[in-house]
Design a protein that fits this description.
It is a single chain. The protein is of the alpha/beta class. The protein has twelve helices and twelve strands. Helix 4 (189-201) packs across helix 5, helix 6 (220-228) packs across helix 7 and helix 7 (232-256) crosses helix 8. Bound molecules: zinc ion.
């Protein structure tokens, strides 16, 4: 049995923990029903207990290398404290890393959740064969992470990769960050629902109004389902989404010229509905993409062929994530493995 580390995905609603061997094999995965709402001390205690239980189980067979924890929010890499986390109130100005290290008696790495998702896709997912990549995670908002030569690019103090707040509309919708016209106001689950509600309020869509009236949740998924059934109003929203994402990617491709951009997060499952306008916009707006685009990005973007293209023909690959919600778990575990952080 090889050495192993523990990866933790501390989400806004629950907590998942995995033991992963240093060569990338999943040993065990547990989902704790921990209520983040019960507060910081409760969550830290349950997390540490579960990490200790798992590590004790595999310690007889290999060395426990430490734990990596993916957290939604901005982390001060030097102090191991959270600067700001909308989903984890009460966690800022508290020495999170030091406290968990003290409890575990092991090395602990804290990292932004999108950064660990990037590292996971780089290690074992869509980007495993390319040296340089970025991930764009489409969820409630947009997250981002950049991996250069196998390492997360943190910027000066861990705040890089805030792709969701790249402005794409000069007089656009107000954003929670204090700005307006940010990418996540047009290409996220929240944006999809808002655009649908705007169409309903404006009396512009009977089909969306009917769906909203009969569906208590009326989520981005409901609107996607309408779109793939051919509803023109649903399709229009995802075309707008794809256009916004294409604009964001055009900027990223122009600036970074990376081998691969991986599109992850829950809303990436709506790929079919937004990818055509995303690629159209990207090709129109990015000279770097136009010069390096694969001939048939929609046909070849997935799976092994994408990696072969990237490696052999120096194309800019825009592709879907492969690891789903496990990317963050693997990436977090990778932080504590040799050469990971
Ligand atoms: Zn913003």
């Amino acid at each position: 049995m090889p050495d192993f580390s523990i990866g933790v995905d501390l989400g806004g609603t629950n907590l998942r923990i995995a033991a992963v061997s240093a060569d990338g094999q999943l040993l065990e995965k547990v989902t704790l029903g921990t209520k983040v709402a019960l507060g910081r001390d409760h969550v830290i205690a349950e997390m540490c207990e579960a990490i200790q239980r798992l590590s004790a189980q595999y310690r007889t067979e290999g060395l426990f290398l430490g734990a990596g924890i993916g957290i939604p929010g901005i982390i001060d890499m030097e102090t191991g404290m959270l600067r700001k986390s909308a989903n984890l109130p009460g966690w800022s100005d508290y020495p999170v890393r030091a406290e968990i290290e003290r409890r575990l008696g092991a090395r602990v790495f804290l990292e932004n959740d999108a950064n660990v998702a990037a590292l996971g896709e780089k290690w074992l997912g869509a980007a495993r064969d390319v040296p340089n990549m970025a991930i764009v995670t489409l969820g409630t908002g947009i997250g981002g992470g950049i991996v250069l030569n196998g390492k997360i690019w943190h910027g000066m103090n861990g705040m890089s990769g805030e792709f969701g707040h790249v402005p794409i509309e000069p007089d656009g919708h107000a954003c929670g960050c204090g700005g307006h016209g940010c990418a996540e106001q047009y290409a996220s689950a929240t944006a999809v629902v808002r655009m649908a509600r705007e169409a309903i309020t404006g009396g512009l869509s009977q089909s969306l109004a009917a769906a909203a009236a009969s569906d208590a949740e009326f989520s981005a998924r409901s609107i996607y389902n309408l779109a793939i059934q051919g509803d023109e109003d649903g399709r229009r929203i995802f075309r707008r989404f794809g256009k916004a994402l294409g604009m964001l990617l055009a900027g990223l491709v122009n600036v970074l010229n990376l081998d691969m951009f991986v599109i992850g997060g829950g809303v990436s499952s709506a790929w079919d509905a937004f990818a055509p306008t995303m690629f159209e916009e990207l090709r129109e707006r990015s000279l770097v993409y136009a010069a390096t685009a694969p001939e048939d990005p929609l046909g070849k973007e997935e799976g092994a062929s994408a990696q072969v293209l990237a490696r052999t023909r120096r194309k800019t690959i825009i592709t879907r994530a492969l690891l789903g919600s496990d990317a963050g778990l693997y990436g977090a575990a990778r932080l504590a493995a040799p050469g990971g952080a």
